[in-house]
């Protein structure tokens, strides 16, 4: 029977020895993947500690879930479906990832162990570049000296000739037609055509250029990590042959300074998969690797689906009446008392 310590060992092997083994790894500075993340919001800094976050090394693991971001919904689903351990891609923090309460109490309620990886997993495989139609010949997971500011520079695959080929490839790999069908089904079931869903709303899009524009060398960026127009200018100088900027995981708007700079440099700009798809890009390969190293453990994928609904159509008539009542009787009177 596999134990928590076996899961930790498997994750350490998968990441090439990047996981935290002991408390000294966290504070000694020896593990470069123990990273402090802060944008100087008071009290909100986070230290990434790849490996076991909370759990008993000797506890048995029969069923394990891989998720992108640990939430209270993950914890509840794990508790209801017999999951013993959750491996989260993103870093895990007290309360923020456990429904606002202390994590250990919540996890112990269901006998759960939790792991995180994040920066320790980045750069391990070429899959995200491959899905987006290129083979990276340069990978930098801290461009400009910024941890997590990932940069790929790659040559397009033989079958990818144009921007349109990239969009069609993403549609095939990520099953966007299925996502559209699911959204239509939900709209019909709930009698609300205004429901929106992340995967559908954030599909691939060309911001500079057109479907027929040729693509040869791609600068693949992740805007939410701190990549700036100045970075783009520098990369273009380093790789003058680059003709296309591809942004994935996060997006930019058409009036973004990054798009403007790409146009100034004579480059295409295309949006790829959003963060909502990373559970398939990074999470599924990780889950498969864990299953192969721990064949006696059942491995499942926790994939969240986020929707947007007008409050006048949210839930049942009964719950909407409840919401009106609570707001009128309790919340708004409080607001009236505050000057």
TrEMBL record:
Gene3D superfamilies: NIF3 (NGG1p interacting factor 3)-like (3.40.1390.30). SUPFAM superfamilies: NIF3 (NGG1p interacting factor 3)-like. A divalent metal cation binds at residues 89-90. The keyword Lyase does not apply. GO terms for molecular function: metal ion binding. It comes from the Bacteria. Keywords: Metal-binding. Belongs to the GTP cyclohydrolase I type 2/NIF3 family. This is GTP cyclohydrolase 1 type 2 homolog.
């Amino acid at each position: 029977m596999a134990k928590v310590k076996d899961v930790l060992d498997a994750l350490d092997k998968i990441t090439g020895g990047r996981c935290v083994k002991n408390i000294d790894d966290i504070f000694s500075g020896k593990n470069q993947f123990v990273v402090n993340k802060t944008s100087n919001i008071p009290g909100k800094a986070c230290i990434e500690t790849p490996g076991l976050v909370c759990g008993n090394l000797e506890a048995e693991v029969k069923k394990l879930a891989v998720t992108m971001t640990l939430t209270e919904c993950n914890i509840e689903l794990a508790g209801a479906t017999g999951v013993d351990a959750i491996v989260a891609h993103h870093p895990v923090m007290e309360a923020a990832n456990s429904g606002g309460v202390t994590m250990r109490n919540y996890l112990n309620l269901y006998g759960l162990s939790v792991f995180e990886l994040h920066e320790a997993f980045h750069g391990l495989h070429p899959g995200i570049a491959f899905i987006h139609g290129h083979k990276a010949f340069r990978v930098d997971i801290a461009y400009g000296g910024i941890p997590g500011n990932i940069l790929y520079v790659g040559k397009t695959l033989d079958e990818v000739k144009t921007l349109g080929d990239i969009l069609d490839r993403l549609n095939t790999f990520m099953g966007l037609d299925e996502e559209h069908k699911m959204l239509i089904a939900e709209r019909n079931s709930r009698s609300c055509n205004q429901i929106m869903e992340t995967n559908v709303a954030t599909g691939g899009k060309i911001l500079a250029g057109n479907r027929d524009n040729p693509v040869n060398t791609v600068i693949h960026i992740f805007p939410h990590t701190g990549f700036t127009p100045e970075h783009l200018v520098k990369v273009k100088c380093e790789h003058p042959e680059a003709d296309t900027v591809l942004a994935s995981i996060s997006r930019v708007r058409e009036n973004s300074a990054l798009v403007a700079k790409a146009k100034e440099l004579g480059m295409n700009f295309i949006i790829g998969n959003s963060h909502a798809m990373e559970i398939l890009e990074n999470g599924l390969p990780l889950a498969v690797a864990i299953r192969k190293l721990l064949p006696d453990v059942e491995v499942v994928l926790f994939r969240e689906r986020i929707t947007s609904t007008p409050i006048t159509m949210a839930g049942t008539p009964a719950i909407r009446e409840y919401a009106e009542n609570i707001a009128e009787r309790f919340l708004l009177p409080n607001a009236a008392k505050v000057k």
